User: Fold DYW domain-containing protein from Phaseolus coccineus.
Amino acid sequence: MSKTNSIAPLNTYPTYHNPRNKSNHAKSPNCFIFFRQSWTTYLPPPNFDLFCSSSVGVSATLSKATYDVAMDKNAKIRKFCQMGDLRNAMELLKRSKISELELHTYCSVLQLCAELKSLEDGKRVHSIITSNGMEVDEVLGAKLVFMYVHCGDLVEGRQILDGILNDKIYLWNFLMSKYAKIGNYEEAASLMKKMQKLGIRGNPFTFTCILKCYTALAKVRECKSVHGYAFKLGFGSDNAVVNSLIAAYFKCREVESAHNMFDELSDPDVVSWNSMISGCVMNGRSWNGLKFFIQMLHFGIDMDLVTLVNVLVACANVGNLSFGRALHACGVKTGCSGDVVFDNTLLDMYSKCGYLKGATDVFVKMGETTIVSWTSIIAAYVRKGLYDDAIMLFDEMQSKGLRPDAYTVSSVVHACACSNSLDKGRNIHNFIKKNNMALNLPVSNALMNMYAKCGIMEEAHLIFSQIPVKDIVSWNTMIGGYSQNSLPNEALELFLDMQKQLKPNDITMACVLPACAGLAALEKGRELHGHILRKGYFSDLHVACALVDMYVKCGLVVLAQKLFDMIPKKDIILWTVMIAGYGMHGFGKEAVSTFEKMRIVGIGPDDACFTSILYACSHSGLLKEGWKFFNSMRSEFNIEPKLEHYACMVDLLVRSGNLSKAYKFIETIPIKPDAAIWGALLSGCGIHHDVELAEKVAEHIFELEPENTRYYVLLANIYAEAEKLEEVKKLQTKIGKGGFKKDQGCSWIEIQGKFNIFVAGDTSHPQAKRIDSLLRKLRMQMNGVGYYNKMRYALINADDMNKEVLLCGHSEKLAMAFGILNLPPGKTVRVTKNLRVCGDCHDMGKFMSKTTGRDIVLRDSNRFHHFKDGVCSCRGFW
DNA sequence: CTAGGGTTAG
Assistant:
């Protein structure tokens, strides 16, 4: 079976929304300077007497003498604080008597502790305050909260805030924003609820912060409720609040609400426009995002760095290179180019627009590179199929001392998957284990995909089973992996498991359908077709293609063709599937005309497509056409034939009886022929009874694949037909001793969604007697009209030799008979066999179709046989 | 003293 019949790569993943943890860029490294400047505004109030006679009791009772000393000490400590000398301030504080210290001195020290983020000193001041018996009132409490929160002890800060019930909004906001920053959105939300309970009015900061939290928690209803509350308090026209709402709605996929918010803004600023652009992009409406950008320029709003970054992403998504170049120019003009984030995004834009040179140019000119730059340039090489370069870049990056993150690793694992580099893949897997990155879901998914692509499903499954919370990509990857590795049962089983937890999507369909195709599970396939129609997945080319392929392989070519005709934009893979489909069913002329139609619509054939058309020609005996296509590969399309193309040509020669030509042809192949090519010739020797050539050919084969039983059986049959029974016996003992892997012949038929599986000589089936008597009756009739029992077919597979199965016991006969007995009259009997059909069963099929008046479609491991009125569609070509 | 919009992977 040619490889081309499988559909395109199935693991194209859905792009789904990933709420990002935004780093707060406002926290620049010079925040200390910022605090030092603002701190000077917190110098002691001018009227000290007034201050002392207020609620602070301790100093109010001081005598004039102590007062002066105290004044001196307090002033000294505050002086140290002013200069940022925490050490001396602390020393003096510790050495001072309770009676000497004033509230404001404590405040100054706490402020400095906060600025220097010295939690230890802060705590000491706190304990001094407590042991001094100072009342922690609103002023001192606020300062303590500020210190604790600033130093990162949110729990202590929260506790003090709860105790003093300060209604200073900034303190609440401060705590809330810190919780948001560390990702503890639940705690932030609980603060918000407490504020509401206490009747503390929020301000714009409160709302922007809480919206961010609820968005991160994906709480749409809570966002809406905050929306209502903020508007009730009169913040409906505050740009920051409305901008936050726009972002929140977009991230919750409430696109319409976001647009409504924007429309209500009387004076949208650059952030509002940026929010619209990014919102459109993240909701898959990049083109709309670009429109907003143009509109924004019409309104005279100046773009900034964020604008450009957003628009570049949109541009990358729509793949518009020329627009991207214009944006590049904008970046230079506005001074954004040179910024790492801008350059990273620009690089990625070029890469996604397919312009690798542009991406590398940006990369080499970058002064500063980050992990994102490297990941992007690696992904750029992967996108172009330059997998080895990508892997090299990965190594180079590490030698520069940059540590790959989950993004980088995913890209490189993907490169290994695409290039079938199992060894490199394993290396990176080890790296991942060492760095504890296997906990990252996309990384695990990428690894599974890599192992699946390399055909190691056990390894893939091990990873799959260790993922605690699997997403739809995990399931799809695993199902698709089983499908592509010819493990359709495992694929379907997993598909059932998946549905207990998740709803399948379009990609799931494209992953399961090949499993149905593999098993010829028509009922299941139809069920999926229904689901696809209800969900509107047919518009996805991958899905449509998989559906066509499924129907082809379930034997319903006409239906497959109808679906094929309905697909408006066909790609090369779809055309290839249809051509291969016709080929499998022996509709060579249709295959050729489909190929020509494809040429007319301007799609150039690739090498896989040529395999399909050559395969079709050989299976329909189209000798002349076959050679024409084969020769055109080089002359017209500049495609160098691969082994599989040569194999088709050998097949074609063999089928048309040109055995010696085929032998000579094999000798001229510039690539070393494999066992399959010689095997095609060997079976040709069987059909044309050429024992001498068969022996010569078999030598080549046994050298290449000494453990493949198939070829021993093939040769044994050739000997059997030539009545060289001694030779047959020799081979039989060889096979018996060899302990070779045997393919057991088995056939199955699906009736009302249930699979009935038959193996050769099986008498355990509940209907075994009925089947047997039907077959006996048919056999007698056959003999009566001149068919005779052809002993030469008796050795069609290795199993037969061991079990000495009688002719009549072949699994495909049993399955066909079972179908005739159990399907309503007029319904086509569809049987699938895992090996090639044997000649006697083929005769039986033809005869059955005539005497019972039934259409029988038999799919074997090589092609389809449509039995109708005593004739088979293969016309002897199989 | 606290805020709203931004880059990389499958």
Chain A is about 65% helix and 5% strand. The longest strand of chain A covers residues 746-751. Residues 114 and 859 of chain A are 78 Å apart (CA to CA).
